[in-house]
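User: Design a sequence. Structure:
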């Protein structure tokens, strides 16, 4: 299931920021929207931090929403 894959990926990369696009790419998911729905939900609970910033994984030239597992 996508939620489990996203959570496992973030927990396996603790304290590293990722945008939804990079998570989708790393997990070979075709739709970033699948990841966005999961990360938005994860960010509501404890253990995850969601913020705006520049993604260190894809080095995007614009600010994006990032998430990390604490």
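Assistant: Done.
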């Amino acid at each position: 299931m996508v939620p489990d894959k996203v959570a496992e990926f973030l927990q396996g990369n603790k304290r590293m920021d990722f945008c939804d696009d990079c998570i989708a790419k790393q997990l070979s998911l075709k739709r970033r929207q699948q990841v966005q729905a999961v990360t938005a939900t994860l960010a509501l609970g404890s253990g995850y931090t969601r913020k705006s910033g520049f993604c260190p994984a894809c080095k995007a030239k614009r600010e994006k929403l990032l998430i990390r597992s604490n």
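The chain has a mean pLDDT of 94. The longest strand covers residues 48-53.
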